[in-house]
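Meet our chain:
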Amino acid sequence: MVFSGIVQEMGKVKSLEEAENVKMWNGEVTKGTIMKVEMKSSLEDAYIDCSIAINGVCLTVIAIDKKESTAAFGLAPETLRRSNLGSLKVGSPVNVEPSLKNTDRNSGHYVQGHVDCTGKILKKTKDGDSLRMRIGDVPKQYMEYIVEKGYIAIDGTSLTITDVNVEERSFEYMLIPHTQASVIMPLKDVNETINIEVDVMAKYASQNIHRIVDGRISALKAKVDDGITPLKTQVDDSIIPLKTQVKLLWVAVGVLSAVCIRLMLKK
């Protein structure tokens, strides 16, 4: 199961509330957050337990109401912490994308629907017929995966990064007219939040490189330590006789001094 980042439609939050009767695996009943989203085309072949991305968050359908054209989703605490779904209100527009079928074309990039963090809209600028959007407040640990001309998913939309400022923890992307009319980001104001999923391929590549480099550094350090140990032993072995010689020298000086004093007293 995977997404492409090509938003199928803009839906609308029908309800977002805390339920009192959510059943756990052990039969315990607890509270939980349930969100209903109104959608059209994405609901046509949807079924209970299927996956639909809402603002880029992969969610499991737990109920379908064909009459009101809604699908219901349970929002876990992890989902609420990582994404902007908890800040949505009734009537909020959302990006909707069903998971890809085996026969579907991926016209975006490999999107998991596993949102890493949120960012804040810093600036919206018109550039000819395109809209440039500057995103800031990106957690530092994710900036290494954000590179110019690389992929990124913003509220579930596959986009190309056009500029990056690592020091300021910000980046920029642009939207063509067709995309502007198909997704929710142009409707958002400055300082509103967006969901960010960095390219998972960049994460895998970075992790493997770190492992290789760290492994080689550890091996090199071990070789250096192995080389230092015998050298240290040799130094210690040479220091011990030197200390003995110094002690003997002081003893000789003491004896010579005592003899001189006695000779002086006899005179």
Remarks:
- The chain has a mean pLDDT of 88.
- The chain is about 30% helix and 35% strand.
- The radius of gyration is 34 Å.
